[in-house]
Each structure stands twice: as C-alpha cells, then as structure tokens.
Amino acid sequence: MSFRSQAGLRPFSLVGRMALTNYLLQIAVLDVLFSRHGLGLAMRPAYALPSAIVVFACMAVTSGWWFARYRWGPLEWLLRTGMYGKLQPIRRTPAKGDIMGLVG
C-alpha cells in the first residue's frame, strides 16, 4: 500500500484501537436518537446511515485526541487492568522536550 492510501485509513485505525469504548458509545448515542426513551427523540430509519457516519466521524476525532494523551481507550484500560490484576499506566509518557504531551 502506498503512503497516501495508508493515511486515509488512519481514522479507522484510531477508532479500532478503542473498539470496545467506541462500540458501546455508538450504541448508546444511536439508541437515544432512534428510540423513544432517552430524550424522547424518535428519528426515522432513513436517517440511520447519515447518523452513523456523523457519530463515526466524531469518534475518529475524539479517538485521535484521546490517543495523543493516553495509551488505551477507557474501557480497554479497565479491561486490561482487570485482566492483569493491577492498575495499568494509562497516560502516555511525554517525549523529551514535549511539555504538552502531544508528540508520539
């Protein structure tokens, strides 16, 4: 694969790295939008695909922001901590000279 085509896959990679968190979040958001419980909204089925695309785009942006600061998604971290039986480090270690913790 060329570099150009790989760059287009980055949003999918970010969302996939926190798949459990994003899956449950997407279900919760779309359930509130498409059922009468929650906010009392009941969107028509014709809006399902556009709504899912918008939710996915928001998850891709949020996942990029999250992974600039943390190693794993919140639920992935919780699962990992439970499996290893001890608290796992979640924060990324800032690169040398990076005061904001945004590199790497």
Chain-wise SSE layout:
Elements: H1 3-7, H2 10-17, H3 19-34, H4 48-67, H5 74-84
Helix pairs in contact: 2-4, 3-4
| Largest sheet: number of strands, sense, barrel closure | none
Number of helices: 5
- Helix content, binned percent: 55-70%
CA-atom Rg in angstroms: 17 Å
In N-to-C order, the SSE pattern is HHHHH
Described by the principal axes of the CA atoms, the overall outline is flat
Coarse structural class: mainly alpha
Gap between N and C termini: 23 Å
Mean pLDDT: 83
Q: How many strands in all?
A: 0
The percent range for strand residues is: under 5%
Pick out the low-confidence regions: none
What does this structure look like?
- It is a single chain.
- The protein is an all-alpha fold.
- The protein is 58% helix and 0% strand.
- The chain has five helices and no strands.
- The chain has helices at residues 3-7, 10-17, 19-34, 48-67, 74-84.
- α2 crosses α4 (48-67) and α3 (19-34) packs antiparallel against α4.
- The longest helix is centred in the middle third of the chain and has 20 residues, at 48-67.
- The chain is flat and about 50 Å long.
- The two termini are 23 Å apart.
- The model has no long low-confidence stretch (mean pLDDT 83).
In short:
With 104 residues, the protein is mainly α.
Q: Which characteristics define this entry?
A:
single chain, mainly alpha, 5 helices
